[in-house]
Amino acid sequence: MACAALFKLGAFPLNWWLPDVYEAAAPEVSGFLSTSMKAAAVLFLMRLCELAPEARFAAYLPAAGALTALAGAVLALRQERLQRLLAYSSISNAGVLILGVGAWAVSGRPAEGVVALMLFLGAYAFMSNGTFGFLAATGLETRSQLKGLGPAMPAAAGAFTILLFSLGGIPPTGGFIAKLLVLWRALDAGLVWPSIFAAVAALISLGYYLGLARDLWFAEPAGPAPAEPRGSALVIACAAGALLLGAAPWLMAGLFEGAR
């Protein structure tokens, strides 16, 4: 059952199916799969850790999460097709979630670990649905089509840039707070090396997140400038949610009390 949950999350090396599925599906479907399926698999994995506290699989979760985060980030660097790039990004973020579940399990399943994981899932719901929503609204498929579109569609492109920053863990976004809390919980559980590998993966991921932002705003456009897409309201709403969760330090007390 633990392997089934890791398969759904796209944990390395069980991630072979995920990029093809995300690329072949409509962007809206890929966004739904990348969030709802991850949330269900994480909750199922946490439930397994509660039902079988003496099982050995929980001790391997931190290493599996760190390896998944690193593999996803490295493989995303060379992707030209945007949905495939976001699929590998999803794998890397799944690795951080697996690390968080492992840290929560080996440290005695404290309520603080639940808060960190729930915050990460909430932030990722905004980030992933927003980025895939941008692709659905604009119809873009490759990085070359993205070049120079920022000034032509400032609202949608600005929101997409905020979501990219949040996925990369750049403050003051919710993605930064979420990753920081998960890594903090992992370090508090004594998982130094898995935390280091996950942090390195986060640094590597900036290579493509910031690269997409650079292409969007500073590259020469490859063709005529399009108009602002009609579906940009969803992208803007998701970007606002990611920014709102950046205020999580002031909300953590309430979240912690709710988890308790």
The span between the termini is 27 Å
Query: What percentage of the residues does DSSP assign to strands (E)?
Result: under 5%
The description of the largest β-sheet is: none
Q: Please state the average pLDDT score.
A: 85
Count of discrete domains = 1
- Large-scale geometry: elongated
Order of helices and strands: HHHHHHHHHHHH
Write up this protein.
There is one protein chain. The protein is 75% helix and 0% strand. The chain is mainly alpha-helical. It has one domain. The protein is elongated, with a radius of gyration of 18 Å. The mean pLDDT is 85.
Brief summary of the model shown:
Helix content is 75%, strand content 0%. With 260 residues, it is an all-alpha fold.
List its salient traits.
260 residues; mainly alpha; 0% strand
List the helices and strands and how they pair.
Elements: H1 2-9, H2 18-24, H3 27-51, H4 57-76, H5 82-106, H6 111-138, H7 143-146, H8 154-167, H9 174-188, H10 192-218, H11 232-244, H12 252-259
Helix pairs in contact: 1-3, 2-5, 3-5, 3-6, 4-5, 4-10, 5-6, 5-9, 5-10, 6-8, 6-9, 6-11, 6-12, 8-10, 8-11, 9-10
